[in-house]
Amino acid sequence: xxxxxxxVTIALGCDHAGFQLKQEIARFLLNQxxxxxxxxxxxxxPCDYPDFxxxxxxxxxxxxxxFGVLICGTGIGMSIVANKFPGVRAALCSNEFSARYARxxxxxxVLALGGRVVGVDLALSILRVFLETGFAGEKRxxxxxxxxxxxxxxxxxxxxxx
Length: 162
Ligand code: RB5
Description:
CATH class: Alpha Beta
CATH architecture: 3-Layer(aba) Sandwich
CATH superfamily: Sugar-phosphate isomerase, RpiB/LacA/LacB
Bound molecules: D-ribose
Strand order of the largest sheet: 2-1-3-5-4
Distance between the termini: 46 Å
């Protein structure tokens, strides 16, 4: 079971290809007691994934949301957009192993899913693992992961100067 946590806010976004799965995920998270910010899309009418990845990535980058979940057909477009934003570490996962290590080693804060790649049951299982797993740099004091994330932050700072 995912622990209910009323203090954790999760921003959701999808395009038309992720709409059905986003609805399932929103229902699941609300049932678990999470705060949900739904940034759309709100139907399966064709739309452009960057328009929905951007507000979710901004929520996570600014701290307005602790985590983001982004869903398009493959999850690839969503992860490309989200990873443009400072402090956002989006991980495209299609299995629980990737989700576990994305949290443990990369401190990923956005989960990207492919609505045409994973079914609802697998997607929810991946999401559960993502939310239940802590960053090993914090939980276990594994300094190498903190050092590696520090290098990503340094790249972000240097790019900002240009
Ligand atoms: C939409 O057809 C599809 O291209 C989009 O959902 C996504 O998979 C892009 O990365």
